[in-house]
Structure formats: C-alpha cells, structure tokens
TrEMBL record, chain A:
It comes from the Eukaryota. SUPFAM superfamilies: TPR-like. Pfam families: Ig_TPPC8_1st (PF24545), Ig_TPPC8_C (PF24542), TRAPPC-Trs85 (PF12739). It comes from Triticum urartu (Red wild einkorn). This is Trafficking protein particle complex subunit 8. The lineage of its organism: Eukaryota, Viridiplantae, Streptophyta, Embryophyta, Tracheophyta. The gene is LOC125510857.
From TrEMBL, chain B:
This is Trafficking protein particle complex subunit 2. CDD domains: TRAPPC2_sedlin. Coiled coil: none annotated. InterPro entries: Longin-like_dom_sf, Sedlin. It comes from the Eukaryota. GO terms for biological process: endoplasmic reticulum to Golgi vesicle-mediated transport. Gene3D superfamilies: 3.30.450.70. PANTHER family: TRAFFICKING PROTEIN PARTICLE COMPLEX SUBUNIT 2 (PTHR12403). Pfam families: Sedlin_N. It comes from Aegilops tauschii subsp. strangulata (Goatgrass). GO terms for cellular component: cytoplasm.
Length: 1272, 135
C-alpha cells in the first residue's frame, strides 16, 4: 500500500503542514462575523489545495511536482502551547458527543460475532475515535522542540474601513502581541509577511480598497499585498452561496447564525487568493529557505572535517544534563537543521528530511537532549514510513522515540502517546494489527482513564482485525476499555464497550468473567434507566452459586432494586432462582389407583402391580382392555393421556433448590394449567398438543392461564429456601369439570417482586429420548378429567415404625369414603402376611392382650382349616355384606406381628368396586408402611432324646437378649402340636424361676417334652403337663392360647417361612415362646412378644427306641448258685413304617469292633495318616469303654447272656414289643448290661419290597446298671 | 512463593476444569474475575503458539502489566495456565510437569469423564502442595 494513501499518510499530509499565522484588525474580523465566521474559519475550507501542481525544487537540482498542498491558518494568539485542561475538555467533548449518538444503539440487541465480522474496518473504528486521536495529537501543537508547528508565514489583515491601514499593519506585527515562540528566540522572527485588505462590497464600491492597496504596494512591497472583497451578496442567506458553502461544511465549519453574505464570487475570490498565497508565496519561500539552510548545513556539518570538529567541540563542551537538554536558539545549527528537515518533510522531500534528522539525532544524543532526540527519532520513523523503506528501521525509530519519551518522565508522556498513535497507525497500515494493539495498550497505561479507554477500544479493534482473529483479546480489551469509560463517568460508552464484548463471552463457562460482564452491563443499563435490559442481564448472574456471600447479596440487591424501579411485577421466563429440578418432576394422578399418603406414590409401580395381580379383575391388568369395555367414552382411546377424577387433586412433585448462600423467599408457587372442557375438540387437540406447547413456549403469556379459575383450582405454596437448601414440594391442581387438563408449567414469585415461570419440557421430546422407559409418568402433562368417583381414604392406626422382633399388636384399619356413593366388594391384599394379618370383625371390640388368654370355658381350641387357607393366599376378602356408604367411616382389626428383624416395607392394597356404574368400575387404595424391626430375643432350641425314658426328650432353650437396653420377661413356652406336652424337669421345682432376661444377657432353660399321642403315656390326661408351660410365677391363669386366631395364623406363616429354610426333612415340633417387654414406664400398655421357632427336631433321631427294663438291684446268694436276672428289652418303632429289629447279645464285647472302623477310615485316606487324631480317638474310646476294656483285659466275663444270642422282631408303626432277656451272673457286683446291639431295618414302602426303600441302622445298647448283692 | 499465582486447567473445549488461586497474597474477590479475564484472553495467544513448537512447556506466552501467563500444553491439548508474577521459569516448568502427572492420574480414572470438572480434593491438595514447593 502506498504510504501516502494510507490513513497515517493522509493524516501526516494534513497535519504536518506549514502554519500561517494570522493577524487581523477588529474591523476585519467584524466583517467576517457578519457571515457568522471568523476570518480563519472563512479561509480554512480553501486551505486544502487539491489540484495545484506546483513544481518544487529543494536541495537537489531535480524538481518534482506537488499535486496537493495544505496550509494551516492559525490566529497568532493560538500559536502557543495549549493549556492542559482546555485540551482535555475538548477531548472530553469529542467523546461525549459520540455518546449521544450511541444511545439508540444501546437499546438494540448486542452485536453478534457475524455482525462484527461483517463490519468494514472503518466502522469498527468510528470517526469520532479518529477525531479523538487527532485532538490528542493536537494538544502537543507548538511545542518548542519541534519546528513543524512553527509559523512559516504571517498573514496581516486590515479592513478597508480601517483608518490608516498602513500603520495598522505595523501595529499588528508588534512584538508585544506576537506569540512567545517568536519572542523567546526559539524561532526566527524574520518570517514571510503577507498583507491583505479586506473589503466589504456592501459598504460601497471597491475604489477605497483599491486605493489602499496601491498605497500598500508602494510602502510594503508589490508582491506581498492583496485585496480581498467579501460580503457581496446583498440579501442575507443567499441560496446559491449556501449551496456552495455547504460543500465545505464537512471541514468542521458551523455556521450558527444561518446568515451568510458570501456569494459565489466571494468564494471564488477567496479560493484564488489562497491558491496564489500557497503556490506563489509560501512554497517558493520554503524552497528558498531549504536551499539556504541546506547550504549552511553542508558547510558547517557535512564532510569529514566538520564531523571531527563537531565531535571535538561537543566533547569539550561538557553540558550539564537537563531534562530538555541545552537551550537551542533559532540561530544554533541544531535548530536550523531541524527547520531544514521539517520544511523538507512538509514539502515531501523525505530523503532530505531523513538525512538531516539522522544527522540531528546523533547531535542530540551526544548533547543528551532526550526530548529533542526522541522527536527527531519520531520524525525519522515517519520519514521511513513515508518513503516506504526499511520497515525495521521505521519501527526501530518509533520504538526508540517512544521509549525515550517515556524515559524522560511526565513531560514526555503525551509525546509518547502521540508517537504511539502514529506508530500504531503505521503498524496497522502494514497489517501488523497485533503489534499495533500492544502499542495502543502500552500508551493507554500512560494516559488518564478517559483517554486510555478510547485507546483500549482501539486496541480491541486491532485484535479483531488481526489475523487470525483474537476474539478473546478483543473482548478483554473492550472490557478494560469499558471499565475505564466507567471510571471517567462515560456510562454509555462503558455499556457500549461491554455490549460489544458480550458475544465473546456468550455461553462462557468461565464463571467469574460471565458474572462480571453481565453484572456490570446490567447495572449500568440500570443506571442509564433502561431497566428491562438491565434486568435481563442481571438475571444471568443472580443464580451464581460460586460467588461469595457478599457478592451474591450485591447481585440480588441490585436486581431487586431495578425490578422495583420498573414499578411493576416482572415476568421472567425460566427464572434461575430457585432452580427447579425438572428431572425430579413427577405428576401424581389418581385414576383407579389411589394412594393413602404421598409417600406411597414413590413406590415402584411394578411392586403394586405384582401385589394387585390377584386382586383386580384379570382383564384390567392390561389397561387398554378395560378401556375397551367402555366404548362410549371416546377420550380414553388416547392411550397417551392419563386419567384423573374431577374433584380430586392432581399432584405434582418437584424438587427446588436455592443455589445461593442467601435465603430467598419464594411465594405463590403454583401450577400453570389449562382445562379445555370441549371433549370433541380434544381428539384434534391431542394431535396438536406439541404444536400448542410450542406456541406456549414461544409466547409466554401467562395471564391467559389464570382466567380458568372456575374450571379448576390450584394450590399456592409459600416457602423460604435457606442458603443452599433443596426442598421437595408438592403442588396440586383440582379440576372441577370434565375435560382435558393440561399441566403447562410452574409459576412462582420471588421476593414478592419477580414472577418466574417455567414450562415443562415438551413430552414428545422426552419420549424420544427415553424410549421405552417413557412410561415415567412425568411425561403425561395431558390428563383426561372424568366424572367424580367415590374414593376411599384409609390408614392403619398406630402402626409402629419401630418394633421389637416378635411384637404382637392389634391395630385398626380405618377407611373413609369421602364421596356420596357407596363402595362394595372390598378386598385387601397384603405383601407381608408374616407381619400383618387381617382380623375378624369380632376382634374389633376385644381388649388386647386379654383376648388372647386361655379361657376355661372356651372350647374352640381348634382353628377351622378354612381360615388357614385364606391366610395362605394373603388375599383377604371382607364379608360381602360390607359396604361403605358415602361419608362413612369403617374400621377393621388388623393383627401385627414383627416376625424377623430388619427393615420392611409393608404394602397393602385395597380393592373396592363402585355401587353405581361409573367410568371406572373399581379402584384400589394403596398403602405403604415402613417398619423397622429391631432384634429382641433370640430363641433357639436343642432337643436331644431322653435315654432313660421312651418318647421323651430333653429340650434346651437358649434365650439371648440382643437389645442394648430393654429387658424381657419370659412368660410362656408352648408346643404347638397338641400331642406334645412340655413340662419342667423334675429337679426344676427347686430352682428359682428365671423371670427376666436383661439386656445383652443369655439364659438357658431345660424342659422335658413328651409325646402324648402314644398310648403308653396316659399321664397326660391329668393335665399336669399340658402343651403350654408358664414360666413366670404368675400362675396358669395367665396362659395365652396359642391355638387361637392371631397367634396360630402367624405361626402358620412362620412355619411356612421357616420350612423353606429348614433342610431337615422330618421335623418334630414347633415352639412358641411368649415374652413380655419390661415396661419402663407403667403407662404403656403391656407389650407382648411371641417368638416362633418351628421345625425343631432331635439331634440324632432313630426310628427305633429301646429301653432295658428290669430290677435294678438283685440280692442273691451266690453260695448256692449263680444268679439269673430276668430283664426285658422294650423296643418301640416310632417311624411310620414297618420295621424289623434284631437284637444281638454278646458276652464279650470286643473293643476292636469300636476302633476298627476308625482305623480303616484313617488308612483309607491315602497316606494322610494323622497320628494325633488316632490317639484322640483312642483316648475317647478308652474313656468310653473303660469298663469293657477292663473286661477284655481280664478276659473274664462276669456275666453271660443266657436265653438267646439273637432275636428278631417285626414292629408295626407306632407299636412296641418286649423281648425278654436273661443274664447269668456269677459274682456279686455292679454290672452294665449294655453288651448288646440292635440292628433295624425300616421298610418305608408298604408292599415290603426289601431291596429298595430300606433304611437300616444299628445301635449299641444303653448302659443299664444292675447291682447284684450277696444275699444272706 | 509468588505473591500472585492463579492456576487454571483449561480443557480442549476452552472450558476451565480446574481453578486454584495458589498465590500467597490474600484472595480478593475482585481479582478472581480479573485473573480469569487475563487467562481467558491468553488462550488466543496459546492457540497460535501451541502449534509452532514441539515442547509442551510454552514458557510465558502473554503478559498483562506485571502479570505473566505461562502455559503448558498436554498432548490432548489440555492447557495448564499459570498467571504469576514470579520469574523462576525452572520452578514453573517443574510445577507443570508434576501437575501433568497428577492430571494423567485423574485422566486414567475410569469414572472421570474427560473434559469434565476435576472435583477431586486429593488433586487439589496435591496441586497446592506443588505450588508451595515450586512457585
């Protein structure tokens, strides 16, 4: 790009131009005032000469032509350094003027990335910024270290009405009034003078002026005098002049009065004058001056000799270092070189200028005149630029100048800014936008906030223009600029800067940035009074959870402040505070399924469905089928829609969260609903639901939804959410008429000032996403409202949330029919029949636990089998005649038993049918309770056969109290089957009763049980040992009847449950231990616990029992003969099948037979022979058979079996046989007749197929000691 | 230890996934956004610079007044950015390398979704300890 055509080039061509100092008389000035202009204003439009084509010859002999030229006309009074404050005020004016234009922009949407990129470069950096830059540069005009602002010529103007115009000229150029530059000797006062007579045509003919001109020419010189006539138009505001004048208005002319006496001729005359003045006077004068100065420089400085001399002279002259260096008068060679090079620059002989600047820079450097040095460097940088040579040099010079200016401190600061501006422009021209922006940023640090704001904005623009685009930098610098604007009280500019940066930070995950930008934009908009936009931006930040408490409250306060300033309630779509968790949304509508409490709704539907499988009519398990039975009601065809009943509330559960640390007040949370009563339209309506919702989403007009007050009522909820709190709320809408209810959204009021609302997500979208899991009921925001139905509500009274294991209670199920219609055919299903069993209608009046006591007169010991069957299915049908009338309550007893420890969810489902025909033939009431069962007593039984009695067992009951603090009293132990009798051990009577089991203690008790069913035991009849035994000292009156309804039912359940776990195929009996909790405070009712232990069996049970019977003491006189003792062996077959038993007696019981199998098994283990084990076995066997061992060692048998050695009997089931045995004893002593063995075979099949189904076994004889005494 | 040091891990998608003020200077509320602005703007420079070198440690890429932004780019183009006013480049390099190791451990966690916020408190304490050690 041609540097002359670049922006910087044009600026330099216009700004670095010869200055003409203007001196006018007051009368001349007044003449111009008539047209509302000053003299300079009048001439300045013509000071830019576009087509002059003047040949110029400077130092070199080769002339070149200037096509365009500009001179600056300045009043002499203005030729001085500007006052700082005045200059700043001018700049501020420029900025605030732009402000006013910016306001309408602020109301529109902030620009997007595409908009910004589409904008041409010029628009990014608007005109006023350029004006600002030039004004900033202009503050440095007429500085003393540069000469391009020094006047080249002087124009002296006198009016034709002035008396003695010649002397006036002399007065004008009086030294007292001349600017300080000339007076202080910084510049040469001998400058080109031009004299002008101003004549007003209105005042009369030109003759007077011509006369004056002639006079002037004679005294002041022929060429330097001119006549200019103006105001030739007679009537004010000549139209033709106005048109021609308007073309120059762009040059900053403001014709305030609107009157103009200048006509076309005047303008042409002015134009001719200016052209003549420039081309015939100024340019030749400058040419000549250049040549003269060049000659002078060449003689004093050029050449080897001069250089040496110069160096020598400067070194010797040790100047003290001053900030501005030594004082240079216009006569000094340095000043002359500077004038030479500046003139050359103005006449665009950049080569000449550059060489002189370089010459000068070394001088200044040696003189340590840093400011001048920097100025020279700056100019040489510009020369390089204009010559479009060596970019590196240009940049080096500019940087050098810039840093030097900065180094000299405050006096060079503004110069540094100017240098930076030029430098940045230079870089921009060359496309080095990134570098330019860093330069802008550097100079912005040196300037006051307003200036730095504009500079930062330019830096931002550069980042946008750089390649590749640096949008983040752009945004950042705009934010910095905005901040500076705000500091310098330019709020509109600040907002504009932030707005422009918004698109960079859109959807920005950098939270602090986001908050800062939106908060400030919002706040400033608010300050400017544009509240809606302010609120829109503040909405983005009010839900910031990561900020500190103070910041959050600041955001909120500002937000509410602006909201209140608007003076109206503000509707905000998707207000972020509080946050509604839409995934937690759940619509609870009760169609045929009704719920007892809100918590029951959360139970998985499949649990209910499983529970209700048997309960509800099979055809209606699939919901579409029962709908088909109602062909009249067409809206039900729509499977997607759910059903709700008029008059019954549809509930919606949703979670809301306060992200802030401040508590917020949320009031009036309610649903936004629509109820269309037109059923026919609903079919088409159902099809277009999605479309409707789209409309609702795009046009958030919530007011329409409020008008439906007579069709439905919505609940309003007020809550206060603490900092960071999450709450679950339930909203209700109760439709009153039949139709289609649509849940559209939620609305709420935040702190009584902002109404937030949010629509639910469109159902179809969700459905696609979730696929088959779309069965979630949150989708169904369309509900079909049907006619009112009877509805039961119910609860179980005082169902404990916590209970000890075994806790037995009588509870009441209370039902209430809220409608006026009756319901019938009530059925109930319970998920855990082990825990809850419905009672009988008669139980309701009973007093617990007295009702469980055994009554003497009550002989209904046996429970009819029918009830057991009923219980088994856990489906309970209330008696057919029970109907719950409208508005009636109904109670039914319920037995509760905490069977096993743990947490349990009890599900109860109640089925009922409508008396009258309705849309839905039946409904279910679902109840759900959570019960925590704590461990209490752990009861276990160990049963072992009694070896001394037939059909008797010893039972050891271990009771461990597992509670940490509660004690229990053992009350009663019962055997469930009636054929068993339990009694204490005979010795038990003397031992004190164990009354209570304290916490963490264990107790063991021993009992004896007896099979009553066998005919052999007749003693049961006397009732001394029944199936129950009372453990507490209270006596037998307190005995609870275990065979009555609740306990036996629960026992049945327990038996069923424990039977599943028990692996033992053959069980013996079940025990029920009833205990009482020791009440801490007596006010509490007696707590009864029943522990069921089922399927207890003896440790090792043989099908065959045997017992030796005979005299225990025999007195015999051995002197006569050996003694014969008659004993008999009673064998009992307790199995259900025939058994054959063989008895083998042996006189000598070999020890081998005992130990041999263990030997074999040990050796059979393939080398894994454990010595110690065998020793143990030997030790055991030796202790066991001590007697026989002794016998064998002596090899003398003290007795012999004499009647038979082997006998076989066949026994029928449950029958006994006696085998007589005879023993011959030879000496008195104590003998153990246990040297016999029994072998039996049980034929389990009736047909007697021996080879199969035979269980066989054998056993050693029990010890049977007989004392034989020597008779007298 | 540097008086000001703000460490941020920026994911591939320019989302900050971990932020920590590790400087010894007391934390000021208004500086938090200031630091974020500087680091966010520096991403523009990193974007260019990352592809000009093989090294992961890009040294100081940007400066704002007396604050310097040093950047370390992982192979997955996750950027560790440190805004600091200290001059010890070696320390910063070591810091970045150790943090990279920690980051890889986080990354190997099968439950960590790449590009999501690092919420591990263990990681946080480790990074702060490293900052005390090297910066």
């Amino acid at each position: 790009m041609d540097p002359l055509r670049s922006y910087l080039g044009r600026v330099l061509l216009e700004d670095v131009t010869p200055v003409v100092m203007v001196l006018t008389t007051p009368l001349a000035e007044a003449a111009c005032r008539k047209s509302g202009l000053s003299f300079v204003d009048m001439l300045s439009p013509f000071s830019l000469l576009k087509k002059i084509d003047v040949p110029v010859r400077t130092a070199s002999d080769q002339p070149y032509r200037l096509q365009q030229f500009k001179i600056r006309m300045v009043y002499a009074s203005d030729v001085r350094k500007q006052d700082c404050e005045v200059a700043d005020a001018r700049i501020k004016l420029v900025v605030s003027e732009a402000n006013e234009n910016a306001l309408p922009d602020l109301l529109s949407d902030p620009p997007q990335l595409e908009d910004v990129l589409k904008k041409p470069e010029a628009e990014l950096c608007p005109l006023w910024i350029k004006r600002f830059n030039r004004e900033l540069v202009r503050t440095l005009s007429f500085s003393d270290h540069e000469t391009f602002d020094h006047p080249v010529a002087c124009l002296l103007v006198v009016s034709s009405k002035d008396k003695e115009p010649i002397s006036k000229f002399a007065d004008l150029f009086n030294t007292n009034q001349l600017p300080p530059l000339l007076n202080e000797g910084i510049m040469d006062p001998q400058i080109l003078k031009h004299y002008l007579v101003l004549h007003e045509q209105q005042d009369g003919p030109q003759e007077i002026a011509v006369n004056i001109l002639a006079e002037m020419r004679t005294t002041l010189g022929v060429n330097d005098c001119k006549l200019l006539s103006i105001n030739s138009s007679t009537q004010a505001d000549g139209s033709d002049a106005d048109n021609s004048w308007s073309t120059y208005k762009a040059h900053g002319l403001h014709n305030n009065e609107g009157t103009c006496f200048l006509n076309m001729d005047d303008l042409n005359e002015i134009k001719d004058f200016m052209q003549d003045f420039a081309s015939n006077h100024i340019i030749p004068y400058m040419e000549q001056k250049i040549r003269v100065l060049n000659q002078q420089v060449a003689t004093t400085r050029k050449g080897f000799r001069n250089q040496i001399k110069n160096l020598w002279w400067r070194k010797r002259d040790d100047v003290p270092e001053a900030a501005n260096g030594p004082m240079y008068t216009f006569t000094s060679i340095e000043s002359q070189i500077r004038v030479l090079s500046d003139y050359a620059f103005m006449l665009r002989d950049y080569e000449l200028a550059l060489s002189n600047y370089r010459l000068l820079s070394t001088d200044y450097k040696l003189d340590k005149a840093w400011k001048r040095f920097a100025g020279v460097q700056e100019m040489s940088g510009l020369c390089y630029f204009m010559l479009d040579q060596s970019r590196k040099d240009a940049e080096y010079c500019m940087e050098n100048a810039f840093t030097t200016y900065l180094r000299i401190g405050s006096s060079g600061q503004r110069n540094a800014t100017r240098c930076g501006l030029w430098w940045a422009e230079m870089l921009k021209t060359r496309g080095q936008h990134r570098e330019a922006s860093t330069v802008y940023f550097r100079i912005s640090n040196e300037e006051p906030s307003l200036h730095s704001a504009v500079l930062l904005e330019q830096a931002a623009c550069c980042y946008l223009l750089s390649s590749p685009r640096m949008l983040r930098k752009y945004g950042f610098h705009l934010i910095l600029a905005g901040n500076s604007y705000y500091l310098s009280d330019q709020k509109q500019h600040a907002v504009r800067a932030y707005r422009n940066a918004l698109f960079v930070y859109k959807q920005n995950p950098w939270s602090y940035i986001n908050n800062h930008v939106h908060f400030n934009v919002g706040r400033w908009y608010g300050v400017l009074g544009i509240f809606d936009v302010a609120i829109k931006h503040l909405l983005e930040v009010i839900a910031c959870s990561h900020q500190s408490l103070t910041t959050q409250s600041m955001f909120l306060n500002d937000f509410f402040h602006f909201v209140q300033s608007t003076g109206e309630k503000f509707d905000v779509y998707k207000l972020q505070l509080p946050v509604f968790n839409m995934s937690s949304l759940r619509v609870v509508n009760e169609d045929h399924r009704t719920y007892a409490s809100n918590a029951d709704v959360d139970v998985n539907e499949s649990i209910w469905q499983e529970l209700e499988e048997e309960l509800i009519p099979s055809s209606s398990v699939v919901r579409t089928n029962w709908l088909d039975t109602q062909p009249k009601s067409s809206p039900f065809r729509n499977n997607k829609a759910c059903i709700c009943v008029a008059g019954e509330a549809v509930k919606l559960n949703v979670e809301l969260k306060n992200p802030l640390q401040i508590s917020v007040n949320v009031s009036g949370i309610s649903l936004i609903c629509q109820l269309s009563t037109n059923l026919n339209a609903s079919e088409t309506g159902a099809l277009t639901t999605a479309a409707e919702e789209d409309i609702a989403n795009t046009k958030p007009s919530i007011s329409t939804f409020e008008s439906d007050g007579n069709n439905f009522t919505v609940s309003k909820l007020d809550i206060v959410l603490g900092g960071g709190e999450t709450k679950k709320i339930q909203l209700e809408v109760t439709p009153k008429v039949i139709g289609i209810l649509k849940l559209v959204g939620i609305r709420w009021t935040l702190s009584d000032s902002v109404v937030g609302y949010q629509y639910f997500e469109v159902a179809t979208q969700k459905k696609n996403k979730k696929g088959k899991r779309g069965a979630l009921r949150s989708l169904n925001n369309n509900l079909i409202v049907i006619k009112g139905l009877p509805k039961l509500t119910g609860y179980i009274e005082c169902l404990p949330a916590k209970a000890f294991t075994g806790d037995l209670q009588l509870l009441t199920l209370n039902l209430r029919n809220q409608s006026e219609h009756a319901v019938k055919n009530i059925k109930m299903k319970i998920s855990h029949p082990r825990f809850v069993i419905p009672g009988d209608s008669s139980d309701l009046d009973l007093e617990f636990p007295q009702c469980l006591r055994k009554h003497v007169q009550s002989d209904s010991n046996t429970v009819p089998e029918g009830t057991k069957e009923n219980v088994k299915g856990s489906l309970f049908a209330f008696p057919q005649d029970i109907k719950i009338q409208g508005d009636a309550t109904f109670s039914w007893p319920i037995w509760f038993h905490a069977a096993t420890p743990g947490n349990f969810s009890l599900y109860l489902s109640l089925y009922y049918e409508m008396e009258s025909t309705t849309d839905i033939p039946y409904r279910t009431l679902r109840m759900h309770y959570n019960v925590e069962v704590l461990p209490s007593l752990d009861v276990s039984f160990a049963i072992s056969m009694c070896s001394s009695r037939l059909q008797e067992y010893i039972v050891r009951m271990d009771v461990i109290n597992k509670t940490p603090s509660d004690s229990f009293t053992l009350h009663q132990l019962s055997c469930v089957r009636t054929k068993w009798a339990v009694s204490t051990l005979p010795s038990r009577d003397s031992i004190s009763f164990v009354e209570t089991v304290p916490a963490n203690q264990a107790v063991s008790c021993f009992f004896k049980i007896k099979d009553l069913s066998t005919s052999s035991c007749i003693e049961a009849a006397d009732g001394s040992c029944g199936s129950d035994i009372v453990l507490s000292p209270g006596g037998s009156t307190d005995v609870f009847d275990v065979s009555r309804t609740p306990i036996t039912d629960f026992h049945y359940q327990e038996r069923h449950q424990q039977g599943k776990l028990a692996k033992v195929p053959r069980s013996l009996l079940d025990f029920i231990l009833i205990s009482k909790a020791v009440a801490v405070n007596s006010s509490k009712t007696e707590q009864l616990l029943s522990h069921h232990t089922c399927h207890c069996s003896a440790l090792n049970q043989n099908p065959v029992w045997w017992l030796m019977e005979g005299p225990r003491t025999i007195t015999h006189d051995f002197s006569k003969s050996c003694c014969e003792a008659n004993i008999q062996l009673v064998i009992h077959n307790s199995s259900d099948h025939n058994a054959s038993v063989r008895v083998v007696t042996s006189d000598c019981m070999p020890e081998k037979s005992q130990t041999a199998p263990s030997h074999e098994s040990a050796s059979g283990q393939g080398g894994w022979y454990d010595v110690s084990l065998e020793n143990d076995i030997k030790a055991i066997s030796s202790t066991k058979g001590a007697h026989s061992q002794k016998q064998s060692s002596e090899s003398i048998s003290p007795f012999v079996w004499c009647s038979l050695s082997s006998a076989q009997v066949d026994l029928k089931p449950d029958s006994s046989a006696k085998i007589p045995l005879k023993v011959c004893i030879f000496a008195p002593g104590t003998y153990d007749f246990s040297t016999y063995e029994l072998h039996w075979k049980v034929h389990s099949s009736e047909s007697g197929q021996v080879d199969e189904n035979v269980t066989s076994g054998g056993g050693q004889g029990y010890p049977f000691y007989v004392n034989v005494l020597q008779g007298a | 230890m540097a008086s000001t040091a703000c460490f941020v891990i920026v994911s591939k998608n320019d989302i900050p996934i971990y932020e920590a003020e590790v400087g010894s200077a007391p934390k000021k509320e208004d500086l938090a956004y200031h630091h974020q602005f500087i680091l966010h703007a520096a991403l523009d420079v990193v974007q260019d610079l990352a592809w000009t070198t093989n090294a992961m440690f890009l040294r100081s890429v940007d400066r704002f007044n007396d604050l310097v932004v040093s950047v370390y780019v992982t192979a997955g183009h996750t950027r560790f950015m440190l805004l600091h006013d200290s001059r010890s480049e070696d320390g910063i390099k070591s810091f970045f390398q150790e943090v990279h190791e920690l980051y890889i451990k986080i990354f190997l966690n099968p439950l960590y979704l790449p590009g999501s916020r690092i919420a591990s408190s263990h990681f946080d304490t480790k990074v702060r300890a490293l900052a005390r050690k090297y910066l």
